[in-house]
Design goal:
The chain is an alpha/beta fold and 300 residues long. The chain is built from nine helices and seven strands, in the order βαβαβαβαβαβααβαα. A seven-stranded parallel beta sheet has the order 3-2-1-4-5-6-7, with helices on both faces. It binds ligand L4XM7KOE and NADPH dihydro-nicotinamide-adenine-dinucleotide phosphate. Ligand L4XM7KOE binds next to helix 4 and helix 6.
Length: 300
């Protein structure tokens, strides 16, 4: 019995092995559940082994796929090399890598010291690169053309900058460019990025309460008028591993409810609830045109 109700076919990833970093919580945990429900064997990677043990036990209750767990800080090169070797020893193959592990501490740029900057860049750029390089070098390069393989890198909706997140935004921008270059150098392995916007994931629980409250109220500025769900990211990750995405590489899929499209010049949304559009619908004339017409009339 599968507990996760995926929109995809239940045997979609039968016989495939998928590595999910950060699989012990939030989006990574949800992705692990969805992929397992679709028949994938999984290798879950994270720093805290207890979190991974819990997810492994949850999956064991609902489906019979093989799940291995690996304690590894993705910022440590030797550990990453050894972990990928360990995964291959256990599973014999890696069809897809989902580079999801990441995170940062909020801070204004002026207060970030070199160690803090490097910590976050290593967490959100170097670590993902190391995982991808090892999976490619140790397995994928030896199996090019035999089967569809992919690497998906989670970045974040921090386009045009995000106050308090300068170190992370810089790292995510780097990860996008890395994905684009890898899609060229490593083809036919497909390499893509996924950029979530504000997702109500358990990862948000790591933020202080006032910041969490502020984030929860962001729904008013998001055109879809709500935060995203973990499963709305995991569905896209499953899609990118699937044959339905076999001609998608070097791309970035945004999962953000159109948040970056809202320029905040006037309220988002159309129709009766929006006073700006409402005035157009009612044939109302914006103030500036009324003034211009009045001035012209006065000149006659
Ligand atoms: C001001 C407004 C901000 C608005 C914010 C909006 C937020 C919306 C963001 C939406 C997009 C992203 C969402 C998500 O990512 S959800 C996931 C959430 N989860 C996390 O981010 C948690 C992950 N964080 C961590 O795991 C750790 O903090 C991290 C890996 C980043 C660092 O852990 P590590 O143990 O490796 O490092 P240390 O704690 O030893 O720290 C090393 C140095 O880093 C500096 N540092 C660390 N924490 C802070 C801090 N809170 N403030 C300032 N500096 C910090 C510091 O230099 C540390 O060295 P020292 O301890 O020697 O000083
Ligand atoms: N939620 C959101 O709104 C958004 C999230 N994102 C990104 O999506 C990804 C998942 O986030 P989310 O699920 O929300 O948050 P979580 O904090 O729940 O997930 C992050 C996971 O990454 C693991 N991790 C972090 N650093 C390392 C490391 N150095 N080595 C190995 N594992 C690590 C953590 O496990 P452990 O502590 O055991 O190491 C944790 O399970 C992250 O990259 C996040 O930045 C991007 C945009 C928005």
């Amino acid at each position: 019995m599968n507990s996760f109700q995926s929109v995809f076919r239940s045997d979609l990833f039968q016989g495939q092995t998928i590595v999910v970093t950060g699989g012990g919580s939030g989006i990574g945990r949800c992705t692990a559940h969805e992929l397992a429900s679709l028949g994938a064997d999984l290798a879950l990677v994270g720093r805290k082994i207890e979190k991974l043990e819990t997810v492994k036990a949850e999956i064991a209750q609902t489906c019979g796929v093989k799940v291995s767990i690996h304690s590894c800080d993705i910022r440590e090169e030797e550990k990453v090399t050894a972990t990928v070797a360990e995964i291959l020893a256990e599973h014999g193959k890696i069809d897809h890598l989902i580079n999801n592990a990441g995170g940062q501490f909020p801070s204004p740029l002026s207060s970030i010291n070199a160690k803090g900057w490097e910590t976050v860049v290593r967490n959100n750029l170097t670590g993902g690169f190391l995982m991808a390089r090892e999976v490619f070098n140790q397995y994928m390069v030896k199996n090019l053309g035999k089967t569809d393989m992919s690497i998906t890198n989670i970045i974040a909706d921090m386009w045009n900058g995000m106050p308090g997140m300068g170190h992370s935004g810089a790292a995510r921008a780097g990860m996008l460019n890395f994905s684009e270059t890898a899609s060229l150098e490593w083809a036919p392995v497909r390499v893509n990025a996924v950029a979530p916007g504000f997702i109500a994931s358990s990862g948000m629980d790591t933020y202080p309460e006032p910041m969490k409250q502020t984030i929860m109220q962001l729904d008013k500025t998001i055109p879809l008028q709500r935060l995203g769900l973990e499963a709305e990211v995991s569905g896209v990750l499953a899609f990118l591993c699937s044959p339905a995405a076999s001609f998608i590489s070097g791309s970035c899929i945004r999962v953000d409810g159109a948040a970056p499209n809202a320029r905040r010049i006037w309220p988002v949304g159309t129709g009766k609830q929006n006073p700006v559009f409402n005035s157009f619908h009612l044939g109302g004339v914006p103030e500036v045109i009324q003034r211009r017409d009045a001035e012209r009339a006065g000149k006659k």
